[in-house]
UniProtKB/TrEMBL annotation:
Family statement: Belongs to the methyl-accepting chemotaxis (MCP) protein family.
Residue ranges constituting the Methyl-accepting transducer domain according to the UniProt record: 1-159
Keywords for the protein's UniProt record, in alphabetical order: Transducer
Superkingdom, natural source: Bacteria
An annotated GO BP: chemotaxis
UniProt-recorded name of the protein: Methyl-accepting transducer domain-containing protein
Keyword flag Glycoprotein: no
Length: 159
């Protein structure tokens, strides 16, 4: 029983860490969006296309992070449910000699909730993979914007 509680506590800690990472990525997306806005304002008309793409990528990142946050909240809820089941089982086992069928039902619920949590973790992994891809795209767009800005600066200097 202690092992189940320990594992559940570990899952809760991991969910908190994932939530912190999501917050950091959210902040990066917000900053990238602001950077794209500034680039659009400062850059010549030709650069506006790149700035718009960076802004779109930042918004996609923001949406993905929001989806991941929702999944994490669901995982936390499931872990809490499993934790409650484990506590109920512990009370049942301690107080009853003949409550095996009830304990069996609780264990079945734990197994079901754990499987659902595992599925949600898989979904979180997929969402984080999508966020990573979007961030890579944003980095490439920013790199292209910098190259274009340098080129424009060189052209302006020669004039």
């Amino acid at each position: 029983m202690d092992e189940i509680s320990s594992e559940i506590d570990s899952l809760k800690e991991m969910s908190e860490k994932i939530n912190n990472i999501v917050s950091i990525v959210q902040s990066i997306a917000d900053q990238t969006n602001l950077l794209a806005l500034n680039a659009g304002i400062e850059a010549a008309r030709g650069f506006n296309v790149v700035a718009t793409e960076v802004r779109k990528l930042a918004e996609q990142t923001k949406i993905s992070v929001s989806d991941v946050s929702g999944l994490i909240a669901q995982i936390k809820e499931r872990v809490g449910t499993v934790s409650n089941y484990a506590k109920q089982i512990e009370v049942l086992v301690e107080s009853s000699n003949g409550g095996l069928s009830e304990a069996s039902e609780f264990f079945s619920n734990i197994v079901r909730e754990t499987e659902q949590a595992r599925e949600q973790n898989t979904n979180v992994e997929k969402e984080l993979s999508g966020v990573s891809f979007v961030i890579d795209e944003m980095n490439e767009a920013i790199r292209q914007l910098a190259v274009t800005a340098d080129h424009l600066n060189d052209e302006t200097s020669t004039l």
